[in-house]
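Please complete every field before forwarding. Incomplete forms are returned to the sender.

SECTION A: IDENTIFIERS
Entry label: holo-251
Bound molecule: adenosine-5'-triphosphate
Molecule representation: SMILES string

SECTION B: INPUTS
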Amino acid sequence: MADPILELAGLRKSYGALTVTDGVNLAVKTGAIHAIIGPNGAGKTTLINQIGGQAAPDAGTIILDGRDITGLPIHARSHLGLARSFQITNVLPGFSTLDNVAVAAQAHAGHSFRFFRSVARETALTEKAMACLETVGLADRALIRAGALSHGEKRALEIAMALATEPKLLLLDEPMAGTTHEETARLTETLEALRGRFTILLVEHDMAAVFALADTISVLVYGRVIAEGAPDAIRTDPEVRAAYLGEEEIP
Ligand SMILES: Nc1ncnc2c1ncn2[C@@H]1O[C@H](COP(=O)(O)OP(=O)(O)OP(=O)(O)O)[C@@H](O)[C@H]1O
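SECTION C: PREDICTED COMPLEX
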């Protein structure tokens, strides 16, 4: 596979006496679906927060597409192609599903539409937003108020809003959280359809989804990557199974 789009080297972070990221090295290959799993409190969200810019590492570097982004603010990372799925709280419930995606596209790429006259600009944004909704299977919900979508549909909408920013790397922190069994299956299909078109770094507790989707799985325990590899290798790794005793079932 191609060069890594994301490289973490010697990343460290502590909260007081608690070391939450303990020398993490990680490379996400372009075009891959790369999952990070680990027991509760292993430091997965803290790691994603450092990549997204919501938390600052104490040491180490974060390289996105060859550029050191370690000290950059969130908006600069977003400009360089890093997208984190919007939280449901960022969805405007009174706006249509389509308009939510159009607003995300406009917010990110407003300047690239500046040469369009307003009607053409609106058409271009609407077409782009519609394409993102088609990608996540929400095209038939385009004109419905976002507030009226089901929980699973809102999660799909968040992904569409992130896709509208044309990310080089999409960070997904627990996209299946709170979804029903059917919604999880649908979201798994949605993410499967993104394979090869987008590079995804996924934190997810739903092990069936992770093992179905991931090309590579990194296992984080107490802030360290204890194992990394293809799902089949991770599934049978004795250290991984020991770390998961009493936690989620590994399929
Ligand atoms: N802002 C903070 N201040 C202090 N401690 C924190 C902070 N954020 C996280 N922690 C602690 O760091 C540890 C790792 O938390 P984190 O949320 O990154 O783990 P996680 O692997 O995402 O957990 P989960 O699977 O339960 O979501 C936990 O012990 C948590 O209590």
